[in-house]
Structure formats: structure tokens, C-alpha cells
Amino acid sequence: MQLDREVFELDASVDDDLAWAARVSVGLDRLVEDFELDSLAYYHRGLDGEIHERLGAGMILGSSLLTARGIPAAGEYELRTSLAMLIMDRLGAGGSFTELQALDFHRGHVEMGHDGPAHLAISARKPLLRGLGVYHGKRGWGVSVEFDVKHGPVTVFGLRQARDGGYGFVVSEGEVVDGPLLRIGNTTSRVDFGCDPGEWTDEWSATGISHHWALGTGHRAADLRATADLLGADLVHVQP
């Protein structure tokens, strides 16, 4: 909990949930050490506050701290996305767990983020811990990490799976820009891809990408293409 107070700004809404999230974080550290994990993914749909629901609602803090240490953790059991986060981290780009949140047709931005896990190294400011009563089906508990990714060039990168079972890379480069953000405990960012946000979303989705991916800093398409070549994987570069 002392580490949490040093790393994060604490919103008043965290209350007693911070102590529970800290306990879960310690447990995650031990799990990673015991099994020598390079990444992990988790999901549980609980009911009425039973212990597994409380564990699921307490994962984001510890998962964000692990991700910042280069051991990416992904929610909703998105193991593929945890591997995308791992690759982005090794390229020095960070890599936060991310999905679509909204399209702003007036400003021309794609708003994306997630209620964790976040890569703390790419935050534009000191990350905020916010207590949430409801997020992603986990009701009544939960501490989540909220920040805006550093403004400037970014890359979104995910893994897709083809009909034959093979995997491929999906990449697109944009820029995080200023604008109003939802205050919902998410790693929310406004990304300008230099085109109509609806057109970008159509092309991105048409690649067969899952609904999660990694968001990292810098333009990394060239590095990711080199990585794909080394792995023998195909790469789709979305450039509307």
C-alpha cells in the first residue's frame, strides 16, 4: 500500500478497496514468481460478492504494476493481447490493454482505452486510482487505473487468428491528441489516425482483430514488421 501511494494519485473513492487490491497484488506477484510467468490473462464472472468475483474485481492494480515491470497482464482472458503487450514492452513502447470506447466524428478522433491493466510508463501524468462500483460486470468493488497516454505518436498493435488457426500482426499508427476524456477509471486516450474515425474503425475491424489490442508510444510499424518477418508471421498495416 505504501508503493501504491508513491506510484499513484489516490481518489477518495478507493476507500477500503485499496487494501483488498493490495492483497491481490501481492498474490499476483507470488503467482508470477512461483510459475516464472512472462505474461498472464484472467477472467471470472462472479455473482453476489463471492470470493472469485472479489478476486476478479481486485486484479487491475496488481496487473498494472506487473505490466509496468514488463510482465503484461490482460483482462477478459485475452492471452493473445498479453503477448501483443509483451512485444510492445520489449520494443520500448509500453503497451496498455486497450479496446474501442467511442468515436468522435466532430473532432475526428477514435477514443480508446480500458479499465486496466495499464502500462504505467506511458502515462501523461501520475496515474490515478479510482474506485468503481461497476465495471465489466464486476459489481460493487474495484480499484481501477485512470490516465491519458502521453500525447504524441502512438501505435496500436494486436494479434489476429486466421481461419486456418495461424496468427498474424495488425498494426496502425496514429497520434494521441488533446480533448475531453471520460472519467471512468480507464486508460482513456483520443487517437487521431488522420482520417474519418468510422472509416478507420471499419478497416481495423475488417482485419479480423479481436476487440482488444495493445496501445504503445511511438510509431512502431517498421519494428513490428521486422518482428513479424523474424517470426514468419503476416502483418496487416491499417492505413485508411
Instruction: Let me know the number of strands.
Output: 14
- Overall domain count: 1
Q: Kindly, what is the distance between the CA atoms of the first and last residues, rounded to a whole number of angstroms? A: 45 Å
| SSE order | HEHEHHEHEEEEEEEEEHEHE
Structural class by SSE content: alpha+beta
Strand content: 25-35%
Arithmetic mean of pLDDT: 92
CATH class (first level) name: Alpha Beta
Count of individual helical segments: 7
Helix content, binned percent: 25-40%
Low-confidence stretches: none
Which architecture does the CATH hierarchy give at level 2? Answer: Alpha-Beta Barrel
Largest beta-sheet details: 6 strands, antiparallel, barrel
CATH topology descriptor? L-fucose Isomerase, Chain A, domain 3
Strand order of the largest sheet: 4-5-12-11-10-13
| Structural shape | globular
C-alpha Rg (nearest Å) = 17 Å
Organism: Nonomuraea harbinensis
Protein name: L-arabinose isomerase C-terminal domain-containing protein
Keywords: Arabinose catabolism, Carbohydrate metabolism, Isomerase, Manganese, Metal-binding
